[in-house]
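The authors assume throughout that readers already know how a fold can be written as discrete tokens. For illustration, here is how one protein appears when written out as sequence plus structure tokens.
>
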Amino acid sequence: MMRSDFAAFWPTVRRMLLMLALLGVWPAQAATVRVLQVDGVIGPASADFIVRGLAPAADLEAVVIALDTPGGLDTSMRQIIKAILASPVPVITYVTPEGARAASAGTFILYASHVAAMAPATNVGAASPVAVGGMPGGGRPSPKADDGGDDKSDASDKTQKSADKTGPMTPSLGDDTLARKATNDAIAYIRSLAELRGRNVDFAERAVREAASLSAEAALREGVIEVLAVDVPDLLKQIDGKEVALPAGKRTLATAGAVIDNREPDWRTRMLAVLANPQLALVLMMIGFYGLFVEFTSPGFGVPGVAGGICLLLAMYAFQMLPINWAGVALVALGMILLVAEVLMPSFGVLGVGGIVSIVLGGLFLLDQEAPGFAVPLPFIAGTAVAAAALVFLAGTLFLRSRRRPLSSGAEEMLGLTGQVTVTEGVDSWALVHGESWRVSSRRPLNPGERVRVTGIDGLVLTVEPIESDQGSPS
């Protein structure tokens, strides 16, 4: 009886033993860590790349931003930081490879991340905001901003001595209210990030106020970063077991042996990086304007109008991604209109010079702020203005020359041509003019072989007059 009962339950027992064996030897699925490669200026393209990389990351163990940047736009930086602070998974910013840097906007991103790491021979800092054209005051920092001291002359002397030892520093704030507002806003922002992550607050403020910078070893020693790693696998090994604070609560990292999912910028990001260039946007705007001008003045071909419309729309798309001063765009547009008006109106160069000056001023005022990789240098602006003026004047010269040429088509071309009478039937006569047989009429009867000159045209009938002597062969 007992033997039969055991035989009945044996299949169930065998399945249970098999499941226990599988649970004992089957390896658990490894965690996945996504690595976003960000190399270059922080702009709309890199912001879009990072935000899209963080959006579908809920099933990941962590996201690593492999960063190497000289800085970038404030708007793009804040967009990235907002995405990091709201990320459901830990974000590790890793300044890599050796020789890379996290300057300016990169410093803010490093401070905002849950874990900050750097590779050897890298640096971080120099996060002072820079306005278009720099700041007044000779290019040296002002000690008066938020120093809390009473003796301003002593502070000025100390700063001057420090500047003499260390060389030029950030542009002076002086009495420029806008500059002080931008600097104090940046200081408050990076201090809040440092306090949130428990990192060195003093260096964060000095990085903005004095453009201070640290090497990777010094940053680790002073509590700016948590990890110094030679590569991504070493980084994941060192942060394994580290506890980080997320919006949903605290979380312990399990990154040792994680699967690395490398993400390079795709075609969309590369295209945005090309378009988000103020120099290219300026050139596209000019090509678009002049393409439409050529199409409107000489309709029928179509290519200038189509190309001009596409370039103008691309320029507008680039402008809306950048911190553009629309007064600068309006000045550039006014300059192009004045150059065209110079060709069509006898202003003796006044409109042309005004157009060049307007384009140069518009280019200088084009950006609300200056950042690495997004500046519009004066030589480029001047060269663009001169090239636009030369193109317009060349087109105007060709246009005026074409107006002086004799007509080569149409009814007016027939006036003055000579021909020879071929057939005469009563009052009707035909003559060979311009290689074609035309019906002609004259005040007196015509004879075959007689030479005539065209004096008028009425529909398909030419009015001619006889030529008394041979004054040339038929045209």
User: Anything to note?
Assistant: The chain has three domains: 32-269, 277-404, 411-466. The two ends are 129 Å apart (CA to CA). The first strand starts at residue 32 and ends at 39. Residues 378-404 form the longest helix (27 residues).
